[in-house]
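WARN  no MSA supplied for this record, continuing single-sequence
INFO  ligand: adenosine-5'-triphosphate
INFO  echoing inputs
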Amino acid sequence: MQDIVIATIGSHSALQILKGAKDEGFKTLAICKKGTERIYDSRGYGVADDIISVDHFEDWNDSIEQELMKRNAIIIPHGSFIAYMGHDRVRSMKAMYYGTKEILEWESDRTMERQWMEKSGLKLPRVFTDPNEIEKPVIVKFHGAGGGFGYFVAKSPEQFWEVKNRKYPDNNDYAIQEYIVGVPIYAHYFQSSLTGEIEILSFDKRYESNADSIGRIKAEDQLAANIHTSYTIVGNIPVVVRESLLPKFFEMGENVVQTSKEVTGSDKGLFGPFCLECIVTRKLEIYCFEISARIVAGTNPFVEGSPYTALKYDVPMSTGRRIAREIKQAIEAGRLEEVLG
Ligand code: ATP
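INFO  complex generated
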């Protein structure tokens, strides 16, 4: 343990990852974009023992990786890490990496992700491959548009083409999904590769501009102002779900893990933290529209643990700390390789 450093890129959920690692007794390292160091070092929240500063994350190069290897660093991936690095670079990384690399292509390719979700028996929104077939409200998502940027809602081919041609004439990399009317619920899981057990650590909903503010304006004013609903994420809000929904959420998580082993053809499959992004309808049907195969920012409200982790652990257990505890237990049991991708 004394030789290992827990490292991540300073962004997204780095604060709780590094804090959790310190709580479990690890040394920590943040790789920061110049100018953001103070958040992580002793001038800010003091979660990083060491900092490596870079001009741009995209400039990640061999020398950074060599440095990480020299320091015996285990990298914890999060949403921004994957977005900055790109899947190919992550796959070819030689430094120690927590999580499965095999699952990355299943998660990043929309068709493969849908196959994985279908095989897992999840209820999915219908997909429209041809915009001219739109016959009910749909949500249009641009690929790689992190944080909901540019998503829009349409209810007919005319409406779709009007927005698409006016605002995004050159972007043809989009997916059109049936718009599910219900509340968004993001379920945060942890699959232990050491015990084979699955845990639900917490749930959140997102706070999005302007979807979460439209209800503050009268319908007639919305029309007058010609407001289009947008889904740019600004923050996350903790949620506790009806207790009777928990068995279903557990079953969904277990199926996703089991199917991940089948689709990747590997015993490891998906492990560590992951998230099922869902909409729950008024009939309490749970539709899942995305799997995130890593820690999501929706776990950030739970640095001190959640109502669910309080039931299971006698210390405040964030997702970041849960990851560190898994690594610690793997080291103690001589099974570190099993948790590295
Ligand atoms: P990521 O989680 O990969 O960052 P993102 O932030 O780009 O994704 P999503 O999570 O896919 O975006 O969705 C953004 C918003 O759109 C969320 O509020 C979500 O609830 C809503 N949404 C997504 N798909 C649907 C759907 N099929 N029906 C209704 N609402 C949806």
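The radius of gyration is 21 Å.
INFO  checksum written, moving to next record
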